[in-house]
Design brief:
The complex is a heterodimer.
Chain A (H helix, E strand, L loop, with lengths): L2 H6 L3 H21 L10 H11 L6 E7 L10 H13 L3 E6 L4 H11 L2 H5 L7 E3 L7 H9 L1 H4 L13 H4 L9 E6 L2 H15 L3 E3 L6 H5 L4 E4 L2 H12 L4 H33 L7
Parallel strand pairs in A: 1-2, 1-4, 2-3, 4-5, 5-6
Chain B lengths: L7 H25 L3 H39 L5 H22 L9 H36 L4 H16 L2 H6 L2 H37 L6 H6 L1
Helix pairs in contact in B: 1-2, 2-3, 5-7
Amino acid sequence: MGIVETLSKMSTANKMNAFALILIVATAYPLWVTLSIPLTITAITRGFYDAIDQVPEGGVVVMGFMVNKFEQYKGKEDVCAAIWRSLHQRKLKVVNLSVGPVAQIFFEDIYKRNKLVERYGLKYGEDYIITPYIAGEETALAAFAKDTWSACSTDLYGTPISSLPLMQRVRSFNDVALGWMACYSASNNDQFIRQWGWAYNKPLIMSFQGFGAVAYAYPFPMKGVLDGIRGEAELEFLTGFGGAQLAQLQSQSLFGLVYLVLLAGGFVGYNLIRTRKIEVTKE
Amino acid sequence: MKSAGLTKRLYQRDIPIFITSFVIAVLLIQYFVAFQPVDVVRGAILSWANIISLMIWLFASVVLIMVHTRRVSAGSKGSRRDYFESIIILGTFLFFVVIALSDPANLDRNYVYTLIYAQFAGDIFVATEAVAVTHTAYNIWKRVCQSRFTPEILVLVFVFIAMWLRDIIFVTFYVPQAKMFGDWLEAVPYLTVNRAITLTTAIGTLIVAVRALVGKEPGIIEMELA
């Protein structure tokens, strides 16, 4: 008995369950295994990736996290892993600047969740530091860019900033190679651009909140933006650190592909039944 | 005893049409004319809509609790499935009541309640969606595969496939036009037809409403009496 005959004799309930099972497996598989499906990379994501890639080894990157709610980090853990792992894999020095009330919690989570210290042999104070919350938004950005030691006297753990080896060489934004920003509202982008990008002629990259238009509105200093889930998935793909966003995109694609294959098979199968007049179980 | 003047026609047709017409008139005037008294009337109408809606919700909840309490009280006399369903429903209800009352100082903003409720509701929603997507997908597949290739079915299948191709990343990697074409289908033909349908429905509804107001449109009651 051929496959068409076997399928045509299955009950509707069994066919539905088999169909559902195939789709569930196709959808769930990319959640466990990152597939090597090619992905078109948009220019603004490419710009983001290249901006990190172009910082020379040992260059300083300041991560300005302006967030005030847990929701602004929740769901972004994997793309944060991709960004921070890229930075430390390239042996860049990272200043994690808390310019939002809860940013320091997220910074700590990124390092602990991804075991960055063990994975890349990092030393706190030399390879990265975390600042406590510096209030004032734009004034905080301006103050830190002008004089890091004055804007923030101690790090998150109470150690004087001036005593940290990394901060010995980061006295102002002139000593920084790249600035990263993530904000809770569109208008905050301008603050970073004014106080860091234009004032010190430094390239900036941005993620979260999907304000992709920023990259087009400001050709410089904006070098790249991760625009929404798609942008985040693209970065995960580029860096090779596949996470939730890439899995979601691949899952959706595999579902569509399998469905189209089933559709093509269905056309052939039902037409075979018609032409060969195979007896079909009554449904 | 029913009043002689309170006919079925009056309370089932004339009064609802009058109230509906009045509300529509107030909302239309308020939309086009800046006149504070109309704003006040609009606000009052919307408040009353909320009050009535809440009363209906409350009534529906009471009815549900009563129905399920009766089922549980009846024990195994009724359907076994109904009995267990009602136990689960009432148990869940009591569980959430206890959580809601667990923090009397914050009855209107009990975060524990909100978090647990959101988690439950989210899980149920996702599970339902998963079942719906997988099983509905089968039904769509079967209907499409079994259809004869009439022009409308061909258009349906063509658009269906085009929209799927747009979201398959390696298709758009090798054929970027697939995404552009899918986006165009959504932005131009789909939107155009959608707007045409909305406009046609709006004009048709307006004509029927005006005809009903001037007594030219026979309602259900007239049809029943005819």
